[in-house]
C-alpha cells in the first residue's frame, strides 16, 4: 500500500466538497441533525489513504466539523467520512454517489461513499491487520487476539444503525463511528477492559483505529462477527408470536448481564454513590424530564408524579443510603443482546449462556464524559426490563403476563450470578425505569411517532404506582 499522507490542503479541498456534502449529509441515517440546516463545514483532518490523483480509485479519510444552528454558534459536531474518488463510477456503485465537484483539486472526479466500494473496504481491513500510522490515523490491534486473515470479502451491513458497519467474510465486523467526540469511546474502552479480564460475553475488539491529531478520536473497531446470531428483540417477538414463554432466555440474559457487570466492576473504577451524589442524580433525572416534557407535551401531566420517583432517590440519600456505581453498558435493550443458537444436539435453546452484549457506546447523543461516568448497574437492568415491556406492548393482543414473567426471570438470573437481586432496590429500579421511559418517549416522538404509545403506557403505569415513604 502506498504511504498515506496527511493532507492539509484545506485550501481548495473543502470548498470543492462542501456543495456536495450540503445535500448528501443530512440524508444519511447516521446524521444526527436530520431535518436541520447545515450552516458550515470545517476540516478537522484529512488523510489520503490512496492517492486521489492516481489511475485507480483514491481514498480520502475526513474528519469534518459540521455546524448547525442547534449546535450553538461556536459548537460543532465532528463526523467521520471515507470518500472514494474515481474518474467514473462503475454501475454497481451508482447508489454510493455523493457528487462531482465543479472546481478545486477534485474537479471533474466522482466522489462517493467509500465504504460501499468493496475494493476500498478491503483496503481498510488490510490497514487494520498491521499496527502503525497512516497520516493522521493510528491503527492498533489487541495482542491477545489471533491474527486477522487477509483477503476477506467485505459487505456493508444493511441495518438501521447510528454508525456504519462492514462485515468481512462473515468472520469480522468493523464499526465505523460516524459522529465522534474527543476521548476514548466506551465502545472500544469497555470491550477492551472485558477482553483483558477474560470475559467472553462481549466480542473482543481485535483491531481499531484512532486519530491523535488535533484531538484523540476513536474512529473504528473490528471485532469477531457472531455468525448466525439473532438479537433478543427479534427472538422475543418470535416467542410472543408463537405464544411461547421466553423465561429461559430471559434468565440466561440476566446471568450474562451480571457477569459483564461483575467484570466491569473488577476491572474499572467504582464509586460509592452517597449524598450529595444522590441529590445530583435525582436533579439530573428531573432535568431530563423537564427537557423531555418540552419536546413531548403528553409527558407534562405526568411530570409531578414522575418527579416523585426521582426525588425518592434524593430522599434515601438524605436518610444515609448509598449505592455502588460502576461503568455500565449505558443503553442496554434487547436489540443489544445477540443470541447464538446452540450447535445441534447441545440442549434446549435459551438454556446455556449463548448471549453476547454489543454496542457499549452508551446513548450517542450524550457527551462522552457523561457516558463514561460510573453509574448504578440498575441502569442497564432497567433498560432490559423496559424492552420486555416494549415487546409485549407491540404484540397483539397485549400480553402483560408474558412481560412480567420475563422481567422476573431476568432479575432472578441476574441475582443468581451477581448475588443480589435488583428488585431489592425498588426505588432505584423504579427511578431508572422511569428515566428510561422518559428517554424513550422523546426517542419515539422524534424517530417513530407511531410507537409513542408504547413508552407512554409505561409512563402511565409508573406514575400511578404508589411510592414507599423513605425509611427514616
Ligand atoms: N459482533 C457482531 N456479530 C454479529 N452482528 C453484529 C455484531 N456487532 C453488531 N452486529 C449487528 O450490527 C448491528 C449494529 O451494531 P451496533 O453496534 O448496535 O451499531 P450502532 O451503534 O451503529 O447502532 C447490530 O444490531 C447487530 O445486528
Ligand atoms: O440501538 P440504538 O442504540 O440505536 O437505540 C435506540 O434505538 C432503539 C430502537 O431501535 C431504542 O429502543 C427502544 O425500542 C426497542 C424496540 O425497537 C426496545 O427493545 C427498547 O427497549 C426501546 O428502548 C433505544 O431506546 C434507542 O436508544
Automatic annotation (TrEMBL):
In the Enzyme Commission scheme, what number(s) does this protein have? Answer: 2.7.1.175
Task: Give the highest taxon in the source lineage.
Answer: Bacteria
Q: Which UniProt keywords apply?
A: ATP-binding, Carbohydrate metabolism, Glycogen biosynthesis, Glycogen metabolism, Kinase, Nucleotide-binding, Transferase
Q: What is this protein called?
A: Maltokinase
Tell me the protein family, please: Belongs to the aminoglycoside phosphotransferase family.
Single GO MF descriptor = ATP binding
Summarize the subunit comment: Monomer.
Per the record, what are the reactions this protein catalyses?
D-maltose + ATP = alpha-maltose 1-phosphate + ADP + H(+)
Q: Which Pfam families match?
A: Mak_N_cap
According to its UniProt entry, the protein's GO biological process terms are:
glycogen biosynthetic process
- Pathway it works in: Glycan biosynthesis; glycogen biosynthesis
- The residue ranges of the Maltokinase N-terminal cap domain are 24-117
